[in-house]
TrEMBL record:
Residues 37-205 form the Nitroreductase domain. GO terms for molecular function: oxidoreductase activity. It holds the Pfam family Nitroreductase. Keywords: Flavoprotein, FMN, Oxidoreductase. This is Nitroreductase family protein.
Length: 230
């Protein structure tokens, strides 16, 4: 994609433009808020299959996110292989057992109590898809030499937000999972040293018996998350 001899700036007319009245803007904003308030992190998945193309389109949405210098420093490994999911679950649960057995502070463990989590992660094998998000710390030119990526965590975080919103819009449920350390994912998935795994996202349909922690329904009000300087 990048070539050392093709790094010039070229301006193009804005290819897409949304033109809404103030009333239309308010309506769209309110509609999207209501839509996203129906998104819930779940741990109880159905094994109902999800078409590959649905996942592909959601990843394409993630790939449209803004990024530092437009380097797009992300990679998404989409896994439906039962064998790979079982391997990832086994290694993730090993790290989680260490976490709950003393790797985390008492304060951290206490903070997790209302969420009801344990070292057991059955969703990693029951959910039909796992998407592992990787951050690319550097890239390579077409001649094989390296170039630095910029604002990598910020860029990958934005793309991950796009992905979660796209999956929800497709009617799917998700759970973000961050075992620590996650280096085992590079080996399991054959990803290069330049890439750092940041998250495993379990993706699928909620089981009929799915629940969420009651605390998850509480969200900070607008006045606690923002200030408007008019």
């Amino acid at each position: 994609m990048f070539s050392k001899d093709n790094l010039s700036y070229e301006a193009l007319p804005l290819p897409d433009r949304l033109r809404y009245s103030d009333d239309e803007m308010r309506a769209h904003a309110t509609e999207f808020l209501a839509h996203m308030r129906k998104r819930h992190s779940i741990r109880d998945f159905s094994d109902r299959p999800v078409p590959r193309e649905v996942i592909a389109d959601c990843i394409r949405t993630a790939g449209s996110a803004p990024s530092g210098a437009n380097h797009q420093p992300w990679f998404f490994a989409a896994i439906t292989s039962a064998e790979l999911k079982a391997q990832i679950r086994a290694e993730a649960e090993e790290e989680e057992r260490k976490f709950y057995a003393g790797g985390a502070s008492d304060e951290w463990i206490k903070a997790l109590e209302p969420i009801g989590t344990t070292a057991d992660k059955p969703h990693l094998t029951i959910a039909p898809w796992l998407i592992v998000v990787f951050a690319q710390r550097w890239g390579t030119f077409d001649d094989g030499s390296r170039y630095k990526n910029y604002y990598v965590p910020e860029s990958v975080n934005i793309a991950t937000g796009f992905l979660l919103a796209a999956l929800h819009t497709a009617g799917l449920s998700t759970l973000t999972h961050t075992p620590n350390p996650m280096k085992f994912l590079n080996g399991a998935l054959g990803r290069p040293e330049a890439e750092k795994p940041t998250m495993i996202i379990a993706v699928g349909h909620a089981a009929e018996t799915a629940t969420v922690p009651s605390v998850a329904k509480w969200k900070k009000p607008l006045k606690e998350i923002s200030t408007f300087y008019d």
